[in-house]
Amino acid sequence: MRLYSDFLSERKSGTTTTLNEVERFLNNISSNKHLNAFIQVLPDKAIEAAKESDRRFDTGEERRLEGMVIAVKDNISVKGYTMTCASKMLDGFEPVFSASVIERMTAEGAIVIGKANLDEFAMGSSNETSYFGNVINPYGKDLVPGGSSGGSAVAVAAEMCHLSFGSDTGGSVRQPAAFCGTFGYKPSYGIFSRYGLVSFASSLDCVGIFGGSARDITLLSSIIGGKDEHDATTIDFDFTQKTSKKLRTIGVLEDEDIERASPLITATYRKCIEKLEREGYEIKKITLSKSDTWIPTYYLISTSEASSNLSRYDGVAYGYRAEKFVDVSDMITKSRTQGFGDEVKKRIMLGTYSLSSGYYDAFFKKAQKSRRLIAEDYSRVFEVVDAIFLPTTPTLPFGIGQKINDPIAMYLSDFYTASANLAGIPAINIPIGFTENQIPMGMQLQAAIKDDCFLLEQADKIASIVAN
């Protein structure tokens, strides 16, 4: 992976230029088209921005992210690019504004290299539901890259950019980061603005970042984080603050929860714990008593919110419209039937059912109560440990087509990630190396809500300890 920090050192020493860097990434994108990581790339825009970046470097006017090249998941608005959400419903749609995170980073010299492929409307765990075809893991032509932010993960892993944006609703940054061997950071809820991010499940959605190091991710976070007048859910937060908190006690899961993972993931996790113990960390077994409720709670809430958010795509104001219909009702029905893929339809129907009269109390209301208990469970645990170390995924990257027709198996891919979204806490995937067959593996570090600076500060350090 190409680190922004390495590029910056080379640029300042005069051994490279931003234009050289952008052209290198564009060549990698072109030579790796078979990975299908991008939906849209506009080389002329990136080259023009690179030339401006070089001018600023040469005149001493460089900004805080000067020359940082970023891929953007195609459910985040970038003016001048299409925003399709990898759906027929929005094929060709052009937004009239850029998301807040995009405005903030480009104002400081970052360059958008292109829009990355994803599961349709960010619904999936394998990047196989995209209208534009599935993304392929660069470490195996028959392997999924994870989802829904699979294109963003592949863009970083295959050196098509320095960092990339994804979105994480139940693990959609951390899971593909684990499958592709990158860092993948989900912030505390409200630290990054969601203005310009297409809503899937509004109370769970977070913009997330992929990168080759936590250091690079921290730099980008320091620019895009904090209060945003366009998003009432954002909070004041300063990533440049120095934290005095030390990592001394690490919580690890009970055997019952760990053994939900494959034997290889379980064995690797235990080896990582042994390495942490040898480094002097106190390891404390914790009980997250609500773990059995993580997946059903997540899917009830996320599908319910999705059914509401996606009701705006009806063929009336924008998006796909069926060509033949007899009246407005028929037009809406046909437009949604033809415009949405099977996975999106499935989740809309599940959500609509759980919100319907007679079932709201039994399903959605109960899931909201369960969510509160999950958050309280985490709060209790963080009173006795500084951070939690756990697997990111139950398995290694699985084969293309292996789980697409088994929704339960697919949904269980989110077992170790969904709870962080429900509790609103920060979490990061840490790449720990490869199997004998050179398949990436990742583990996850979670911290208390708003302990993001502490989490990112520890991530590179933990990675260096547990990496094989």
- The count of strands amounts to 11
Rg:
21 Å
Apparent shape: globular
Q: In which order are the strands of the major sheet placed? A: 1-3-2-4-6-5-10-11-9-7-8
**CATH class bucket of the domain at 4-224:** Alpha Beta
CATH fold description of the domain at 4-224: Amidase signature (AS) enzymes
Question: Helical residue percent?
Answer: 25-40%
> Mean pLDDT score, rounded?
96
Major sheet description: 11 strands, mixed
Strand content: 5-15%
Instruction: State the order of secondary-structure elements, H for helix, E for strand.
Output: HHEHEHEHEHEEHEHHEHHHHEHHEEH
Distinct helical segment count: 16
CATH architecture field of the domain at 4-224: Alpha-Beta Complex
Description:
The protein is of the alpha/beta class and 468 residues long. It contains 16 helices and eleven strands. It has an eleven-stranded mixed sheet, sandwiched between helices. α4 links the parallel β2 and β3. α5 runs parallel beside α6.
Write the layout of secondary structure elements.
Layout lengths: L3 H10 L4 H14 L6 E3 L2 H17 L9 E5 L26 H8 L3 E6 L33 H8 L5 E6 L5 H7 L2 E4 L19 E6 L2 H11 L24 E5 L1 H4 L4 H16 L3 E5 L7 H16 L18 H12 L2 H14 L5 H21 L5 E5 L15 H5 L6 H6 L3 E8 L5 E7 L5 H15 L2
Parallel strand pairs: 2-3, 2-4, 7-8, 7-9
Antiparallel strand pairs: 1-3, 4-6, 5-6, 5-10, 9-11, 10-11
Give a brief rundown of this model.
The chain is 39% helix and 13% strand. The chain is built from 16 helices and eleven strands.
Give a quick set of tags describing it.
468 residues, alpha/beta, Amidase signature (AS) enzymes, eleven-stranded mixed sheet, 16 helices, 11 strands, 13% strand
